[in-house]
Amino acid sequence: MTVEALITELLEEQPDEKLLLFTECRDTLNYLLKFAQDEPWADDILCVGWRIRYRN
Question: Residues 10, 20, 5, 15: is their CA dihedral positive or negative?
Fold first, then answer.
């Protein structure tokens, strides 16, 4: 089963549930946002991130 199918199934069966996803890769985030853009709940998405800075 794909991630898209799991998300869709969860939100259809339990529309009041909240879903929390973590990703380290911007490509994965962009993929998930593209999938969600046409969904009725797309306006409820909150993306939080930070830039990692390395010290020398």
Answer: positive
Cβ pair 17, 10 in contact under 8 A: yes
| pLDDT tens column, 13-50 | 998 888 888 888 888 888 888 988 888 888 888 888 77
CA distance 56 to 42: 40
> In the structure, how many helices (H) and strands (E) does the chain have?
2, 0
CA distance 9 to 46: 20
Distance CA 39, CA 50 (A): 26
Q: Are 22 and 14 in contact (CB under 8 A)?
A: no
Identify the DSSP state of 39: S
